[in-house]
User: Fold this.
Amino acid sequence: MMSYFLEPGKQVNTSNWYQFLGKVYRKMIVPASIRKAKHIVTVSNFEKDRIKEVLGITGDNISVVYNAFGKHFKNNIGFKDLDKIKEKYKLPEHYIFYIGNTDPKKNIYKTLRAYRIYCIKVPTPLPLVIADISPEFLENILEATNTTTLRQNIRLTGYIHNTDLPGIYKAASLFLYPSLRESFGIPLLESMACGTPVITSNTSALPEVAGNAAMLVDPTNEKMIGDSIAGVLNDINAASKLIEQGYNRIRSFSWSISADKLLTIYKSI
Assistant:
């Protein structure tokens, strides 16, 4: 039984040997295993459709079991705890939070250009706090995107311990997640659980996970992303509505629900 399937047609980045081996594994070993599997479990209907398309199968033996989020992601974080986290990671009082890394699918190029558009639109733009990238990588991206003027507006957290992540979500005025492709998108649920409005992409599995609880944007349209950032941050009613809808949305996801579904599938085989 296979529990996931990644896009097999994606180009291999040979500059990273670990990523190269992982992509070879997913391109060759995983499809062969799936064809022999009695039943397939994947994390979204988007991925189910991809499996059917790539392997040319009907999908009768494919089940979708959603991911969920940790119980420590919640809204009841005290001000003292938030202040400690802000001090630990040197965070500003108000900010936009973005989780990025070196993977191109995280869309950091368009994200920075979109953030520049937002900065131009408003007189006092909020800083952009970015997790999980190095100063060297950021500098290269700023040069490549002609956004070096943003340097003073960006804060890097470095590695964030999982127990601190809820506080960083909670303290943010907005969570920005315009990925080009995601099989699921757990950070959406984490942010919603912490009471932070979300902007995410209208592609791959992200709309499926977000439902009506996030503002959806075209991840290739930097102007649309930039305008949406300004729109949410400048409209208290819109932000409050997203927060409320987020609380409602996360009720559909829990590891207990997922475990029960998996157990039912195992028993049926």
Summary: The chain has two domains: 17-68+254-268, 79-252. The two ends are 10 Å apart (CA to CA). The chain has a mean pLDDT of 91. The first strand starts at residue 40 and ends at 42.
